[in-house]
Specification:
Blueprint lengths: L5 H8 L4 E6 L1 H15 L24 H4 L2 H4 L8 H7 L12 E6 L9 H7 L8 E6 L8 H18 L13 H14 L26 H5 L14 E4 L10 H4 L4 H17 L3 E3 L2 H4 L12 H19 L7
Parallel strand pairs: 1-2, 1-3, 3-4, 4-5
Helix pairs in contact: 2-13, 6-7
Amino acid sequence: MRWYTTSELCTILSRFRAIHLVGDSMMRHLAQSLNILLREDLSTGARATWRPGNPKNLDCQCHTLFDEHDCAREGFAAIGTEMVYMNDAGSMKCPQSTTAVIDFLPSVKDPPKEGELAEFKKGVKNGGEREVFVFGQGGWDDFEVEPAQRWISAFEGAMGEVVEGFERPPPPPPSPKEEEEKNKKDDASKPAPETKDATGPILKSRDDSIPDSSVDASIKTRAPRSLAVNDPPPRLWISPNAQGLHKNPFFVLGQNNIKLMTFEREMRAWLSWRGFDVLGMFNLTVQSESLDGTHANMESNLVKAMMVVNWLDWVGREDGLGS
């Protein structure tokens, strides 16, 4: 990963018309973090600086904008770029005329609420040319794979209506779990191998149960990215954060790290087959500070935002700025 300068960030964002962020509060934190980078302001870059005062007993700046949800609920968080350019354009370091619109659509669980898909389609312009889509969700459905797949499929259906040339992908291959069960059945039906010439144990990779064709190979053989209107738009899935020590015990049974690791693994295989890139957050956030055991701190969110910028540089052109 490369940490880009603000000038380089402006160059990268100039390649796009819009960057659509869709999902839960962790995606909202991504939108806030991108504003920090665009405003070069750790203290109030994620704040709606044009709003005076604060919610009761809170000081909505720095870490508080990520740790206390009332800052966002009561309108003190700067979410997306349009509101900042409209109300405090002088704080933005990239010119609005050449910078992609970054917007955020809250949608937290399956099925999407009435109006969410309509709002999503309304944000897509010119058949989706020079637009990218970043999705992230899972906690509200207790890290269950099937609801998350239905949720993303609903937005893919909406994309099919407004993004020129976009079609839903074919049915995916078996999930890692289904493939593992199939292999066990196949192994059980085979005759036992002869062992008289065996010279020692055979060691299997711990990831052998994941079909290579559904993960790594799909990335290695994927066609070069293009922002042309008739090509599928770049799509990124960001997994939920690792769960922390301060998680409310009421939610631990449905939302824990064992479930999350399984969720991330199976979603990665399913989404890679559908043409998504996948950014896993478990390793980044498993030891980061979290006041509620769900949301990461400001520092981790800034790293996440820069990871997304690296991805944008990659999909924006083949010879991107990164090494």
